[in-house]
Write a structure and sequence with these properties.
alpha/beta, 2 domains, 4-stranded mixed sheet
Length: 194
């Protein structure tokens, strides 16, 4: 099973706490409070962040040390049963994204262009920058990074499905995945060996 790449020492020694201080949805009085809340989360204690986080993913981008606070917050929410949506909605997303053998694979060689589970992303993979991979698109739950489940505090779904997604890419001979969705890239580089 893939493990969260989170280093407690990096977080404990952080002098910025930008992951929380720059959050657009929560307010902290300063470094001491923000860092204190992250220390609570890191140690598995209760924190207001576990209730107030809107799962925007920005803390992942704000962390200047690359320590993946968003995934830790999502993991702790699941551990504590602090789910972000009503159970029927969460269940719907889990069921809707289950692998059913209905996927599309383009002319994939050693690189694949991931459209995740969002067909509207496909046309974005055009132009000069994508000339070598534009026809190498993959789409469907079998190739979808399950990052959406972080928004429902269901890291267990990611940990269950991500190894299968990685294996599906390996079966195609893919050595590099170009992600059109930032959360897919974040998941593949934070949790999986991409």
């Amino acid at each position: 099973m893939y493990q969260l790449k989170f280093n407690e020492k990096i977080c404990a020694s952080c002098r910025q706490a930008d992951c929380l201080l720059k959050c657009q949805y929560m307010t902290f009085s300063g470094h001491k409070e923000a860092h204190g809340e992250m220390m609570k989360i890191m140690k598995g204690k209760d924190s207001r962040v576990l209730s107030e986080c809107v799962t925007c993913y920005a803390c992942e981008e704000y962390c200047t040390r690359g320590n993946h606070p968003f995934y830790l917050i999502s993991e702790r929410r699941e551990e504590k049963g602090r789910f972000t949506a009503p159970r029927p909605i969460t269940t719907q997303w889990i069921n809707m994204t289950v692998m059913q053998g209905k996927y599309l694979v383009g002319d994939v060689k050693d690189k694949a262009l991931s459209c995740c589970y969002i067909p509207e992303l496909g046309p974005l993979g055009a132009g000069e920058i994508f000339k070598d991979v534009a026809s190498a698109g993959v789409f469907g739950a079998e190739f979808m990074c399950p990052a959406v489940h972080t928004h429902f505090a269901r890291m267990s779904v990611i940990k269950e499905r991500l190894p299968i997604v990685i294996e599906n890419y390996r079966k195609l001979g893919v050595k590099e995945v170009i992600c059109l969705h930032d959360e897919c890239y974040g998941t593949l580089t934070s949790i999986a060996s991409a």
